[in-house]
Amino acid sequence: MPLLSIVLIISTLAISYSLLSPTSSGQLIKTAGSESQFKIDSAYSYAGRWTANSSYVDSENRQMSLVSLYPSVTILKITRLPAVNMPSCDVILEIYDLTLTTNTGLFEKLAYGIGTNYTSSYTPFKMRSVMSHIDDLVDKKVYRGGWEAFIRPNWAENTSFMTNTIGSACIYSSHNSSLGLWSDGTPNIISIAVNRIGYLTMKDDSVTVYKDTAANTAVATQLHNQAEGFLYNSIVPAEKLAQSNLFEPEVMKQPPS
Q1: Which residues make beta-bridge pairs with 191?
Q2: What is the pLDDT of residues 6-43, one digit of tens each?
Q3: Per-residue pLDDT averaged across 168-196, rounded?
Q4: Distance between CA 55 and CA 65 in Å, rounded?
Q5: What is the average pLDDT across 129-140?
Q6: How far apart are CA 57 and CA 109, in angstroms?
Q7: What was the pLDDT predicted at 10?
């Protein structure tokens, strides 16, 4: 299915925030501080030739095709950090850019949001209100696959979880499939970098948008040749890889650590 799914009083000792230009919706954007509520680690990433059925007919009788015949999937390990000095708010949602780059100069960009609540006033309504402002940070012309976002209520400090698979292997459109990262021939190198774009907060019923104006790299990893593609793997045992669909890795489900 297509991807659709889914911080201002601060101490002078903390980070200062200056005002930037408003969005097209009129929402004012502030400059983000450098601190992050979350630690991002690469757990798994694969880009390669798709061998299964690459199209289907949707409910409106439209032929939907995978955006790329050489798509990607990524799984991130995300940890909530303790004692981080973020703006006072009820809910925070940090937005990250995931970019896969080849040595031929081609790249694939995805957007992913992760958040949690700070107060007991968190409600599904507040979650929807915060997510409605993601487009103030995510440019649809750049992130044509849209975005995914996840808010985990009452997320305890120093605990982690694995995301679901994120990537173009989950994205379909009404256009013909492209060769994606293989469009200029088979690449020799593929790497992935995760950078924060900014974050959204809600205090009471007011949403504030913060944008990173300097590079805020969370993690960068190089993939290695594997089968008909490139792989980075820290979670699937080696003996299981040969038996696995690399686009759907068999990851042990574990409670938060």
Answers
A1: 101, 222
A2: 322 122 222 222 334 455 555 688 999 888 999 999 99
A3: 93
A4: 4
A5: 89
A6: 26
A7: 20
pLDDT tens for each residue of 155-168: 999 999 999 999 99
Residue 74: inside a domain, yes or no? yes
Q: Are 158 and 84 in contact (CB under 8 A)?
A: no
Residue 197 CA to residue 214 CA, distance in Å, equals 9
Is residue 126's pLDDT more than 90? no
Taking a C-beta distance cutoff of 8 angstroms, is the pair 165, 73 a contact? yes
Question: Domain for residue 12, yes or no?
Answer: no
Enter the tokens of residue 134: 């993601």
Residue 219's DSSP bridge partners are 194
Sequence-separated contacts (24+) of 244-247 with Cβ below 8 Å: 245/52, 246/46, 246/48, 246/73, 247/46, 247/50, 247/71, 247/73, 247/165, 247/169
Whether 6 maps to a domain, the answer reads: no
Handedness of CA 151, 75, 174, 133 (dihedral sign): positive
- Number of structural domains in the chain: 1
Strand bridging mode 72-80 / 63-66: unpaired
If we measure between CA atoms, which residue out of 88, 93, 86, 91 comes closest to residue 34? 86
Domain region containing 62: 19-241
Strand order in the sheet with 63-66: 55-57, 63-66, 172-173
Sign of the Cα pseudo-torsion (170, 96, 39, 126, in order): negative
226 part of a folded domain: yes
What's the confidence (pLDDT) of residue 257?
A: 43
By DSSP bridging, strand 38-48 and strand 72-80 are antiparallel
Residue in 181, 162, 142, 177 with CA at minimum distance from that of residue 235: 162
